[in-house]
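This part of the workshop introduces the protein records we will be handling. Getting from the letters to the tokens is the skill we practise here. An example says more than a description, so a record of this kind follows:
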Amino acid sequence: MSPTDPIAATSILNKLGLSKNVTSVIEGESLFNDGTGVALFVCIKNIVNDTSEYSFLELMGREILGALAIGIGVSFVMCKLLRSTKDPTKHIMISLFSVSCVYVVCEYFEFSGVIASVVCGMYFAKQLDKYENWRQVVDSENFYLHFWDAADALLNSMLFVLIGFSILYIPNHSHLIWLLLSAVVLNFIARFVGVYSSTLLIGKKRPNQYSRMEFTTLMTWSGLKGGLSLALALSTISFLDQNAYEIVMIITYTTLFFTTVVQGLTTSKIYKLVERSKLRRKISRIK
């Protein structure tokens, strides 16, 4: 359940009116959490099933470092190719080919294709921002951005419809109420501890001059789960017994529903509370 979902975060946060700095941090964290969560899951799964000759650290290093190298290398070449043409249609095809290429190469070498795809996407975004004036000249109608906006909306809709259908098959359990409550509480505690620990590493490099507690509160509440967590949970059927699998699915559905619906719809309120807290802190400092 650790991966926060960039698709859920993007589709919800864009409608809440959060500042660009905050939205960028939440989306970026979701993207890297997404890829790292998959790599971590695969490593632990291989160790539990005793299907790998490597240690945990070797597996994680191989998954992440290899993915970073492939993602940066392929993206660098493809961005050079993109800059060599002024055809917006070719820009779209190059971006599609890039992310497909890094994923296939990583699958061949047994690296994390998800992390490599994240690296590729962020590298392209950074380069396009760098050459914004050039892009506005060669793509004055913004075909590139419109294509990816449409693809994002379509995939978001498909994802949440499928999640809605899958909830119909949630299993029953004799301790269902306790499982539901435990899933919500433990997920919140784990997220809070994880974010707070990260603030000890980044020090004062927090967006919008938030205090440690303000930043932790906002990032904890905006940690939405989505399709990836559900996909990982569904894959455990191959090595868990039926009772354990049902518990995993109940916990996953509960966490996904609570974070997406309850947290997603109230993130803007938490954001406003954090902003007010920051304002009061500044006023008290002036006094």
